[in-house]
Amino acid sequence: MEFKRPETFEDILNLQKYLDESLNNVRERTLEDIKLSLIAELIELNEETKYSHKTWKTKEYNRDKELEELTDVYFFFAQLINYKSRDGRFQIEYYCEEFEIFPGYYAGAYFTGLMYDLLDNKFRWFFSSLLTLSVKLGYTKDDILDCYWGKWQKNMQRIGKEWN
Prior knowledge:
Layout: H1 9-22, H2 31-48, H3 63-84, H4 93-101, H5 111-119, H6 123-136, H7 141-158
C-alpha cells in the first residue's frame, strides 16, 4: 500500500486508522485510554511552549519540539475521532471542514480548557480550541500536515521494534 503526505484532516484520519490497525496492543484501546493520552500530550505540549506551567524552571524554547508535541495531540485526536466513528453514527465532516478553514481561529485557547472540553465529551469545542491554540503558537495547516506526515512515517517504522 502506498501512502502520501496528508493534505486534509480526512487524510490524517485515514493515516491514523492505518497506524492504529498496525499496532499490536496488549489490550483493546478504550475511549478513556485515548482521552488520557490526549491529556498527557497536552501537558507535554504545554511544557514545550513559552507558556509552560513550570514557571520555576528555565528551559530554552525549541520551536521544533513544540511543533512535534502539538502534532502528537493531533495524532491522538485523530485516533479519538476514528474511535468514535467506528459505528458510522459519529460524523467526521465537521472536523474535516473546520480543519480546512484553519487558520481562521483567533479566540483564546487555554490548556486546561482543552482538557475540560475533552473530559466533557465536547469534541467540537476541543477541536476548535486545538486549532485556535495552533494559530496562537504560530503554526499553519501545512506545518501540522508536514509534521504529521514525518512523525507518521517514523511511527510506522517503530511497530515491532519499539512498539508491539
